[in-house]
Design a protein that fits this description.
357 residues; alpha/beta; 5-stranded mixed β-sheet
Length: 357
């Protein structure tokens, strides 16, 4: 593995050079970036997946939805369709991607759209829904044809971008100095208890610019929700103790969920697929076989919200019938900081931008 990574290093240098040239072209104006006179907030990262963009987008929706009309826009990763598409609760992951469908089913009162061209997507949202106050861009840090009014960069506590390397040697999509485009940097997936000393060490490692605000968040988990209506005797995860849990995941970094589920059982078995994996009938058969091999009676299958969207595709419904599959919601909580709170930064930006229009 080490030898393979070393062989990848020259490719990383070429990749990094191409990224630098592209960013310079945007910085000097040869490639155009469009700005907007209404609030546009981008959440993104420098690495390939796994930093918690979806729960942070949901956090923003909960923060803003009671006061403003919100739309979210993403590319609809791994969908089979192209161009602009509005998402409704009856859409499929094949049509719109798992993240967009998850957001629409959880927040039915907001507009959810997908478009690989963010500039076109923003224009069409405003044309079709002029009442929209705010557009939240999911995974748009590298989409520089749009210049958001507020840019949020996420970095995983266990894989900070400052210690990572460019693809394919590492997982960085662009050179580390791309972090300078962010207004807010959030270190995600931290432990629930974060000492002042560790915060100081992390701040020194990230070394934010004077104009950047640094925040820290961790993941909380909700109660299990049945995928197909199969009941459980007790659905409070703080009280229920299972003998065996089969975790089925197709996400980049399942380790926080694994750590959480270990508290709920005596035996945790993980069946892991690739990030945003599109499940097949053969996959369901494999899951069923793994479940049947678990000899203890008090057993259950748990998956993530994103995986639940993909497991509910019409072609799979009859094959997962009878399996006790549940998904577990995830929420973001912010650690207190001595700087301005994250909520206040967001609300002040939206309020000031709205007043200026």
């Amino acid at each position: 593995m080490v030898i393979v990574k070393i062989l990848f290093y020259p490719l990383s240098l070429i990749y990094g050079l191409a990224g630098c040239i592209r960013n310079i072209l945007f910085d000097i104006g040869i490639l155009p970036s469009t700005t907007y006179n209404f609030p546009v907030i981008s959440i993104g990262n420098l690495t390939v997946g796994g930093t918690g963009k979806s729960p942070h987008i949901e956090y923003l929706i909960r923060l803003l939805q009671d006061k403003y009309n919100i739309a979210t826009l993403s590319r609809g990763y791994k969908r089979s369709t192209k161009g602009f598409r509005l998402v409704d609760v009856d859409s499929t992951t094949e049509q719109v991607g798992d993240e967009a469908l998850q957001i629409k089913r959880k927040f039915r009162g907001i507009i959810v759209a997908v478009d690989e061209n963010r500039r076109r997507g923003i224009q069409l949202i405003k044309e079709k829904f002029p009442e929209i106050d705010i557009i939240l861009l999911d995974d748009a840090l590298q989409h520089r044809y749009v210049k958001p009014g507020l840019s949020i960069l996420l970095t995983d506590y266990h894989n900070l971008f400052t210690t990572d390397h460019l693809l394919p040697f590492g997982t960085l999509r662009e050179p580390r100095f791309g972090c300078k485009r962010a207004d807010i940097v959030i270190i995600t997936k931290t432990d629930k208890i974060l000492s002042p000393i560790l915060k100081r060490n992390l701040s020194e490692e990230i070394h934010p610019e004077p104009y950047q605000n640094l925040h820290y968040s961790y993941l909380d988990y909700g109660n299990l929700i049945p995928l197909s209506g199969t009941p459980v005797e007790e659905n409070d995860i703080e009280k229920k103790k299972y003998s065996s849990i089969l975790l089925v995941v197709g996400i980049a970094n399942p380790y926080p969920l694994q750590d959480h589920l270990k508290k709920m059982c005596t035996d945790l078995v993980t069946v892991q697929f690739g990030d945003h994996h599109r499940y097949t009938v053969d996959d369901i058969h494999r899951i069923r076989e793994e479940y049947d091999k678990m000899y203890l009676k008090n057993k259950i299958i748990i998956t993530t919200e994103k995986d639940a969207m993909r497991l509910q595709e019409p072609l799979l419904k009859e094959h997962i019938s009878g399996l006790p599959i549940f998904y577990i919601p995830v929420f973001v909580t912010f650690h207190k900081t001595i700087s301005t709170s994250f909520d206040r930064l967001i609300l002040d930006y939206v309020s000031k931008t709205k007043k200026a229009t």
